[in-house]
Amino acid sequence: MTVELISVGTELLLGNIVNTNAAYLAERCAALGLSCYYQSVVGDNEERLKDVVRRGLSRSDILILSGGLGPTKDDLTKEVTAEVFGRELHEDAHTKERIEEYFRRVHTDQVTPNNWKQALVPEGAKVIDNHNGTAPGLIIEGDGKTAILLPGPPNEIRPMFERDVAPYLNGLNPEGIYSKMVKICGIGESKAETMIADLMDAQSNPTIAPYAKTGEVHLRVTAKALGEEEADELMRPVIEELYHRFGDKIFTTEEEVTLEEAIVEFLDKRGMTVTTAESCTAGLLAGRLMNAAGASNVYREGYITYADEAKEKLLGVRHETLMRFGAVSAQTAEEMARGAAGAAGADAAVSVTGIAGPGGGTDEKPVGLVYIGCCVKGKVRVEEFHFTGNRAKNREYSVARALTLLREELLRAD
Amino acid sequence: MTVELISVGTELLLGNIVNTNAAYLAERCAALGLSCYYQSVVGDNEERLKDVVRRGLSRSDILILSGGLGPTKDDLTKEVTAEVFGRELHEDAHTKERIEEYFRRVHTDQVTPNNWKQALVPEGAKVIDNHNGTAPGLIIEGDGKTAILLPGPPNEIRPMFERDVAPYLNGLNPEGIYSKMVKICGIGESKAETMIADLMDAQSNPTIAPYAKTGEVHLRVTAKALGEEEADELMRPVIEELYHRFGDKIFTTEEEVTLEEAIVEFLDKRGMTVTTAESCTAGLLAGRLMNAAGASNVYREGYITYADEAKEKLLGVRHETLMRFGAVSAQTAEEMARGAAGAAGADAAVSVTGIAGPGGGTDEKPVGLVYIGCCVKGKVRVEEFHFTGNRAKNREYSVARALTLLREELLRAD
Fold first, then answer.
1. CATH top-level class for A176-252?
2. A283, A337, B104, B109: which has the fewest C-beta neighbours closer than 10 Å?
């Protein structure tokens, strides 16, 4: 079975956005055992879109179209694809109800007549509910070909693909594709790849593919098998070998578990609490930690202390320390972590102080210098980092490193 | 003049990498006044690549191919394009010398016979020197069509494009493309589009294209003109009309200015300070506000108060208020905002308290219910929101709405 990806949107043709949907869909299709030979990008133009859809159907079994399902006149993906398949559009009661419900919940004053365009469905098409927006997905089958239409926003397309499209595509293929994600923190990508170079060379079924994320390396282990049990049996020895090599640097083997969730679960199981004291990251660390549902069991309060006086007032950092070593120093990071744990009455605390840039750097303390402190049960460890990104990247890396340090210190104290 | 982008590489088809080259080339071509109607991705396969190149030449004036210029047998872009143009390959002495020199400088031990494949040039082609790698770029012209071949690595393609390809393309096209981004907050996408439907229908030069971002709508106004001055003259009346319709919902007309930067600049100019008191967003609001470089002038400290006791202790929310109305209530949001302003000694404060989900919802207070409070110079306004996303989206929308509310209240008090 071959699949072809068609991304619809003028903003892609103008280069205003990067086509991350194509990379996501391509990766997921490959994991599902489908061969993808072509990807196209085309704008919201009837003739050109029709041409690309026809061309796609002439050379591929399945088309996945993303984008162009919005409520405006510009949005043509559904209309054009239905025409190529020779299908009329009808209002779908279920979809209309879902859109009405969506608007009731969100902002009723903003519903305009053009929104009802999104309730039109080609005859015979399967509807894929959209839980994060108003445009439903659609599956149109005919003459041995299939077109799958999905909305453009990543937060809509991804859950729809995982929940409905992947099982549908899997059903077209008797051999299923099963995968586990071995997630590692505290080891760089090059080093991680070197550590498993022999496994990657020898791989056939299952395969191992590495992906770098900020401060993490993810290894996707993928097996082709006739069922989940067979897949698990194929993957087990590989995953055991990865544990043997990476040890407790592996924080999960579950696709959907994030580093912050692993940490929150660890704390929750032990009835421990954590707090944060942030300068340059200014809330991003706490914000990420609290992405984990259920974080309220382990986190009660946190501190954003940008100004020196705030570090003194809220965390009890000594004036002398700030004067002598400066706000961006190992000493300040240590007192911030210890002070935060005390102020919040928490078992653990993480502190971040650094120079995210673009301004504020000096020869002695350049942009990218960040100190991260971690206090667990009264013991403090401080690490110095030198990041080389822009302001946003330096802050993002600081957060990733802070979580990694917290996890290491929690494991050490356990 | 129309241009078409063809990206060659199996790693793109497998989704192992994101096609940032296409976004970069598309944006640069648009800025050079070239219309791009199609982008394609194809693998290192002779027949399929030939098909895509032929198809491209049949519908576009200029093809820009990236990738597939490497030294291995897999790399076919040059061979296939030369064949389509009916050109023989010859060894180019200048290029061979550059490759030899490159290997002398970098890693002499890694030169293999297949590297000399990169010194082969189609007859009549212009060579574009590569200062960061061994594969030269090539420009092949024939029958009124042009193919420009560039290597895949971003650190090679970008300098080559800027130094040699952009001036070449500019020579083909005297008219340039200029644009402004009108950014709006506090109005939904559908409503914004309805408000300018007549302008969009009537548009020719300049054009208006809307893009939705979380809590914002961006309108790109684009003019074709012979220079910046002419472009400004073309765009001025359109931008004036947009100001007439959207008023102070427009927070900037600069591409690179974000909502948080607009707010920080507003505060900074007036010597005002702001603070944040967050429950469900737990630092994300502060974190986003502090994305703005220079935010340290206007922000000294902030509070993450997840637990009820933290709201009492750090913000002075009354125990009675929490007992009677609950932590997720307009009353608590109001006291959080007022309390934060007082505790931080700030001129303005924003508070967020809500149920981000997935747990914690009740019939009376469902997941997605969020109260945002804003205190400016002692006056507090509270708004109630009902978001319908998952935990992450509800938090992201809360942050966007909180910034919008803060901006509105700052303008009102000004």
1. alpha beta
2. B109
Q: How far is A124 from chain B (nearest CA, A)?
A: 28
A260: left (phi over 0), alpha (psi -120 to 50) or beta: alpha
Beta strands in B112-205 (DSSP E): 120-122, 126-128, 137-142, 145-150, 176-185
Q: Is B126 helix (H, G, I), strand (E, B) or coil?
A: strand
* Pairwise CA distance, residues B28 & A304, whole Å: 40
**CATH match for B259-413 among 3.40.1550.10, 3.40.50.150, 3.90.950.20, 3.40.50.1400:** 3.90.950.20
User: Considering only CB atoms, which chain A residues are within 8 Å of B45?
Assistant: 37
CA atoms within 13 A on the CB side of A226: 0
The alpha carbon of residue A413 is apart from the nearest alpha carbon of chain B, in Å, by: 26
Q: What is the pLDDT of residue B289?
A: 97
Residue ranges for chain A with pLDDT beneath 70:
107-111, 173-174
Q: What is the tens place of the pLDDT at every residue in B307-355?
A: 999 999 999 999 999 999 999 999 999 999 999 999 999 999 999 999 9
Q: Residue B167, CB half-sphere, CA atoms under 13 Å: how many?
A: 6
Nearest to A72 among B193, B293, B392 (CB): B193
CB pairs under 8 A between A and B: 246
| Cβ separation B220–A16 shorter than 8 A | yes
Determine, for residues B38 and A39 on separate chains, whether the beta-carbon distance falls below 8 Å: no
The nearest CA of chain B is from the CA of A78 a distance in Å of 18
Give B57-78 pLDDT, tens digit per residue.
999 999 999 999 988 777 899 9
Global confidence as pTM: 0.76
Query: What pLDDT shows up at residue A211?
Result: 75
The CATH homologous superfamily of the domain defined by A2-171:
MoaB/Mog-like domain (3.40.980.10)
Structure tokens at A241: 């070998």
d(C-alpha A220, C-alpha A237), whole Å: 14
Angle between helical axes of B46-59 and B77-85 (0-180°, round to 10): 50
Contact A23 B18 (CB under 8 A): yes
Residues B13-54 have pLDDT tens digits of 988 889 999 999 998 898 787 899 999 999 989 999 999 999
Nearest residue in chain B measured CA to CA from A102? B388
How large is the ipTM?
A: 0.76
Q: Note whether B301 contacts A314, CB cutoff 8 Å.
A: yes
Give yes or no for residue B107 having a pLDDT over 70.
no
Do domains A2-171 and A176-252 share one topology? The answer is no
**Mean pLDDT over residues B122-134, rounded?**
92
The full set of domain ranges for chain B reads 2-172, 176-252, 259-413
Say what the pLDDT of residue B18 is: 93
Topology of the domain comprising B2-172: Molybdenum Cofactor Biosythetic Enzyme; Chain A (3.40.980)
Kindly determine whether residue A105 and residue B191, on different chains, have CB atoms separated by under 8 Å: no
